[in-house]
């Protein structure tokens, strides 16, 4: 998880949120917050492809400067987490991002992801 825009305590809390969501949905969840190199979707997909188990993984990539959020799901994870649900997660995050709450947006999005993608 690359989250340089967050404090140490925010990163620690986010790690707990990720682990809880992973237990609910049985997928690996990764978060990247930072500058996307090139096209954001291509960058997010390339990050996702480097994960240990990409087919069972969901990557959330946030580029705060460009105001871009991408969610990439592997084949196995996609069986339980639809594009519509992904859009709900992005909407929940961006609502908080717009209010200046990066950590809160990530937390809410990850919690929602865990709820929506659970078995």
In short:
Helices cover 53% and strands 18% of the residues. With 119 residues, the protein is an alpha/beta fold.
Would you mind describing this structure in some detail?
It is a single chain. The chain is 53% helix and 18% strand. With 119 residues, it is α/β, with parallel strands linked by helices. The chain has a single domain, classed as Diaminopimelate Epimerase, Chain A, domain 1. The protein has a 4-stranded mixed β-sheet with strand order 1-2-3-4, with helices on both faces. α1 packs parallel to α5 (102-116) and α4 packs antiparallel against α5. It is globular, with a radius of gyration of 13 Å.
SSE diagram, text form:
Blueprint: E1 2-3, H1 8-25, E2 28-33, H2 40-49, E3 57-63, E4 68-73, H3 75-78, H4 83-98, H5 102-116
Parallel strand pairs: 1-2, 2-3
Antiparallel strand pairs: 3-4
Organism: Nocardioides kongjuensis
Protein name: Putative membrane protein YgcG
Number of strands: 4
Helical fraction equals 40-55%
Record the strand order, biggest sheet: 1-2-3-4
- What is the residue-mean pLDDT, rounded to a whole number? 92
**Count of helix runs:** 5
Output the CATH class name. Alpha Beta
Amino-to-carboxy terminus distance: 24 Å
Radius of gyration: 13 Å
Poorly predicted runs: none
CATH architecture label name: Roll
Shape: globular
Q: What fraction of the residues are assigned to beta strands by DSSP? A: 15-25%
Look up the CATH topology. Answer: Diaminopimelate Epimerase, Chain A, domain 1
**Largest sheet features:** 4 strands, mixed
As for the number of domains, it is 1
SSE class: alpha/beta
Order of helices and strands: EHEHEEHHH
């Amino acid at each position: 998880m690359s989250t340089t825009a967050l404090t140490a305590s925010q990163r620690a809390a986010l790690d707990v949120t990720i682990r809880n969501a992973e237990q609910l949905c049985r997928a690996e969840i990764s978060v990247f917050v930072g500058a996307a190199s090139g096209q954001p979707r291509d960058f997010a997909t390339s990050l996702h492809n480097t994960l240990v188990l990409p087919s069972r993984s969901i990557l959330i990539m946030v580029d705060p400067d460009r105001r871009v959020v991408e969610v990439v799901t592997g084949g196995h994870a996609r069986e339980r987490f639809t594009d519509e649900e992904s859009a709900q997660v992005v909407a929940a995050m961006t609502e908080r991002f717009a209010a200046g709450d990066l950590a809160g947006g990530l937390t809410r999005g990850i919690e929602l992801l865990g709820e929506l993608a659970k078995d």
